[in-house]
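# step 3/5: fold
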Amino acid sequence: MKTIDKIQMVSLLLTRKCNLSCSYCAITRNYKNKPPEYPDMKHYIKNEMSTGYVKVLLDFLKKHNPEIFVLLYGGEPMLRPDLPEIIQHCHDIDLNYTIISNNTEEVEKPLKELIDLVGHIKGYTFSIDPLIVSDENDDDRIRKSNEGLERVLKYKEHIKDLVAEVTIDNRNIEYILPLVRKLTKLGICSDLTFIDIAHSPYYDFSNITDDNLLVLPYPNVHRQFNTIYAEHLNIHLGKSFYDKVLAVSGSNMNCSLGDNINNLTIDADGSVRLCLRIRGTKTPDNFKINEIFMSDGSLRKDLKPFIRSDKDKYCRGCNWTCQVMAEMISNNEIDFDNLAHTNKRGD
């Protein structure tokens, strides 16, 4: 039975600050033709949610759905000095989470300190990209990939759910298979993410405008994934999930956000975004996270019209896989246990 207007997954931007400026990401930067409704970076640094505000927010989410899954995003969330207190609160209320980190050398010290203070981490998702010759001029992409795997393996025993987020574009698709094989041998699940296009300036999470970088469902792409399935390699949620992702590859997914609210994105200042890719205008201007819930934990009825309005006005499609996951959960196609990537195989 389909669950309507129940949030299954939350993308929570703890900060917009980051030690990198990767070629395909725009979340930390101002850029040409950024919409006038969008606050500048000084606004976010000045008005970043406090520790107490984040903890209250997490309490709201847990009350709304005890099994909700929270992705702790940035920028780089490991740069928040209060992250150990936030993670400890997640443990105290038994909240499902993963930390999305670039896992560069600057992150290693706060990662070690976090583990020392809280004992273990439920979920840690680190970036590792299959590098090609043309990446030699992309210093930040190299920094988070060349030594990141070796660095994170030192802390593997303290992380229950260690996941590699692999960003795929049309240039590196042929390099995916050996990387996923290597990660599987190391007991690490691969979360394969297709590059997204910034269809307009309102797509403030993506910095890519070249359609030639898109991964399209051509035979060579299906060959890669069919081999992954045949070898039972460890990929996030397996064949049923990626069949759906491949069906909308090309950055043209038209999701049901606005009809059903099963996925929520919260910006660094506590405002509700349209989604991870698009900030929108009406939704963040009218709602902070503590304003969208009723006293019983249910969603306010007037949230949906604002989300629908922003989607109709600004959405031109995407590859945002979290929305696919949330819809699968709402349709009972997968359960929350499957969001724990460890030991989930390609079959």
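# step 4/5: annotate
Residues 34-39, 342-347 have pLDDT under 50 and may be disordered.
# step 5/5: archive (pending)
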